[in-house]
Design goal:
Length: 107
């Protein structure tokens, strides 16, 4: 549901100049399998060693397995400033990110 909502709103993100990139500790092959199921066309980067996810504070342990938490980071093009949006409801995640992007454009 979450990925489908981001996919549904992809044109709105593109219109706002935003790029959506998912990062997961899953393997590249698992991402290919997910994409081939036709659920989304979003870009997903594999981070199997957890380096990027750890740097962003998004690695969590779940029953002995390392997972990337479903956090969102809005990173301005200068890469100095980022806004962290942690643990959003999957059904509302994309709408909230679009709202936050709109607020950032006003400031």
């Amino acid at each position: 549901m979450e990925a489908r909502n981001f996919q549904r709103d992809l044109a709105k993100y593109e219109d706002s100049g935003a790029v959506i990139l998912g990062v997961s500790v899953d393997t590249a092959q698992s991402h290919k399998d997910f994409l081939h199921q036709g659920r989304t066309q979003l870009q997903i980067a594999a981070d199997p060693d957890g380096k990027v996810s750890t740097e962003y504070g998004s690695v969590m342990d779940y029953k002995g397995s390392k997972l990337a938490a479903r956090n969102t980071f809005i990173i301005k093009s200068e890469r100095r400033n980022r806004q962290s949006l942690h643990r959003r409801e999957a059904s509302e995640h994309s709408e909230q990110v679009l709202k936050d992007l709109g607020e950032l454009k006003k400031s």
